[in-house]
Amino acid sequence: MEKIKKTYISEMRKGIRKLFFTFSLLAFGMLVSSLACYFSAYAQEFAVVAHPSAPDIPIEELKKIYLGDKKNLPDGTKVTPTLIKGTPEEFFQKVLGMGKKQFFQYWMIRIVGGGSIPPKDVESEEQAINLIRENKGAIGIVSVDRAKKEGLKILIVIK
After folding, report:
1. Which of 131, 145, 148, 142 is nearest to 86 (CA)?
2. Which are the contacts of 100, defined by CB distance < 8 A and separation ≥ 6?
3. Helix-strand-coil percent breakdown of the chain, rounded to 5?
4. pLDDT beyond 90 at 39
5. How many CB atoms lie within 10 A of CB 43?
6. If you average pLDDT over residues 35-43, what whole number do you get?
7. How many CB atoms lie within 10 A of CB 47?
8. How far apart are CA 65 and CA 72, in angstroms?
């Protein structure tokens, strides 16, 4: 009886190890798949875009707009910069010359100092596109493919 019990326990342990190994492989596969989807989404090109009738805005001016130092477009239109949740780090680095964390710290200081209004947060690319279509002074970051499809003015491309 004792021998049967030991054999049973030994077989149970082997089964549990196999099950644990199988679940580990499954979890690892899901992680790799999720990371591949995440990085492929951000591997695409993004663009800073504006209303089709908006004037050209050089990168130096975009920086001033997103940092709250410029409130109007070159033609006098009030500007409304937008940021989508998940805006790629490349935008902050290449356009603003700072990281995402530094950008938000910068705005916290400006807000506490009073009088400054940060870029408008939008939930999705779709919401940004609708805002840009309806407001000549709105600018935002969307995928290049989507900007072309929607007929928005591409100001700069971020790779």
Report:
1. 142
2. 87, 89, 92
3. 55, 15, 25
4. no
5. 9
6. 47
7. 23
8. 8
CATH 3.40.190.10 applies to domain 44-158: yes
pLDDT at 38 over 60: no
Is 129:152 a contact under the CB 8 Å cutoff? yes
Nearest to 74 by CA among 86, 92, 89, 62: 62
DSSP string, 48-79: EEE-TTSPP--HHHHHHHHTTS--B-TTSPBP
**How far is the C-alpha of 137 from the C-alpha of 56, rounded, in Å?**
12
Strands 153-158 and 80-84: unpaired
- Of residues 36 and 153, which shows the higher confidence score? 153
Q: How much is the pLDDT for 15?
A: 66
Model-wide pTM > 0.85: no
73 touches 54 (CB < 8 A): yes
Boundaries of every domain in the chain: 1-43, 44-158
| Helices and strands, number each (H, E), in the chain | 6, 5
Q: Say which residue, 49 or 116, is predicted with more confidence.
A: 49
